[in-house]
Design goal:
With 378 residues, the chain is mostly beta strands. It is built from three helices and 24 strands. Strands 1-2-3-4 form a four-stranded antiparallel beta sheet. A four-stranded antiparallel beta sheet has the order 5-6-7-8, with no helix packed on it. The chain starts with 13 loop residues before the first helix and ends in a 7-residue tail after the last strand. The model is unreliable at 1-21 and 23-74 (pLDDT under 50).
């Protein structure tokens, strides 16, 4: 896999907001997946309907009615969101969308869902009324996250049940469009995480893959599924982990009020050497929900349960024990679980919380706008 630049220069905060939308999808669909009624209420309602059907001597009619009710509950809510910045709404999944990723060459968007499918969308078709997608089936499982390879010719997913990594290769048709998508399940990475995988990453250098689980484990793999290094984050519980856009660093955040950053070192000939502690971001008073790098990793943004987000100057000589410097602290709309995105140039911050995406000027923390009710549970 060849290296490629993942990010493009943003206009205003659109790119940062777009990056946060994937997190909103995950958060809101999980909330929406909760039942509005308890199982006991459903059972009592079912019993009542059954008694009524017996009393009226209309068992068959009642059964048809119940099937109709179940069907209506499973139907997706109509999308009513509208905004001048909205490029399009992609429809194709039948279950909750759990992850999205934009290919480094900017040509494709991948989405994965609980419907056992990964859909690839052509970005050039976003301005059209109808959107075609190419589907990759996930046999006997479903993907929770998806990440493109640096050359945009393959992608990896994390498997929900197998709790490991699977690689898919993208074929091409004669016209250059995506052809067959092939995965060999016998080549899945070995299962080593005991807790569920919550984050995956693939370095832009194509040299390693990162996985982090909901406990405190974090692993670095080569592309053949061999573990290069295993770390204990010592954060009591991992909330988020990521590979920096430059491919040089990996980082994690969790229950503790800090973000830990390591450097993944390779020799000049490309052989793995070690994973070394680089620096830590300390300043929050509660757990850190998520964090983000800018394009060259000289800035980082964090969002915490303490109700604040922070911008950090990470352009320091950490090998000489220099610590990152806090640039500014901003106030979040709430202290609920959130995801943060930082624009490639480090000038704009977006925070996704519940249904909304809030955008701020990174250097002043001034509010730049808000996208309300991007996803609704109604």
């Amino acid at each position: 896999m060849s290296a490629a630049d993942v990010e493009e220069q943003p206009t205003f905060s659109v790119i940062a907001a777009t990056a946060a939308v994937g997190a909103v999808v995950l958060l809101i669909t999980l909330i929406c997946s909760l039942r509005n009624k308890s199982e006991e209420e459903d059972k009592s309602e079912h019993d009542a309907n059954q008694k009524e059907s017996i009393a009226n001597g209309q068992k068959n009619a009642s059964k048809k009615k119940e099937k109709g009710l179940v069907k209506s509950k499973s139907q997706p809510t109509k999308d009513t969101f509208s905004h001048p910045w909205l490029a399009t709404s992609l429809k194709g999944h039948s279950e909750a969308i759990l992850g999205v990723d934009l290919s480094p060459n900017g040509k494709y968007l991948a989405s994965c869902a609980a419907d056992r499918g990964v859909l690839l969308w052509n970005v050039k078709e976003f301005d059209q009324k109808d959107h075609k997608s190419v589907r990759a089936n996930v046999e006997l499982d479903h993907a929770t996250q998806v990440k493109f390879s640096p050359d945009s010719r393959a992608f990896i997913i994390s498997l929900a049940n197998a709790n490991t990594i699977r690689i898919f290769k993208m074929g091409k048709k004669s016209d250059g469009s995506v052809g067959n998508i092939v995965a060999d399940s016998t080549m899945d990475f070995p299962k080593v995480h005991e807790a569920d995988i919550i984050s995956i990453g693939l370095a832009c250098t194509g040299k390693y893959i990162m996985t982090a689980a909901a406990d405190t484990s974090l692993n670095i793999w080569d592309l053949k599924g061999e573990i290069l290094a295993s770390l204990d984050t010592h954060q009591m519980q991992n909330y988020h982990a990521a590979v920096s856009p430059c491919g040089r660093f990996i980082a994690s955040s969790g229950f503790t009020p800090d973000v830990k950053v390591w450097e993944v070192e390779f020799s000049k000939t490309g052989e793995f050497k070690e994973v070394k502690r680089a620096f830590e971001l300390k300043g929050h008073s509660a757990g850190v929900y998520s964090f983000a790098f800018n394009n060259d990793s000289t800035r980082m943004a964090t969002v915490s349960k303490d109700g604040t987000w922070k911008l950090w100057n990470t352009n320091v000589e950490y090998k000489k024990n220099q610590d990152p410097k806090l640039v500014i602290t901003g106030k979040c709309p709430s202290n609920r679980p959130s995801r943060i995105a930082l624009s490639p140039d480090g000038r704009s911050v977006s925070v996704a919380t519940d249904h909304d995406i809030h955008m701020y000027m990174a250097t002043t923390a001034a509010a730049e706008g808000v996208l309300k009710d991007v996803h609704s549970c109604e």
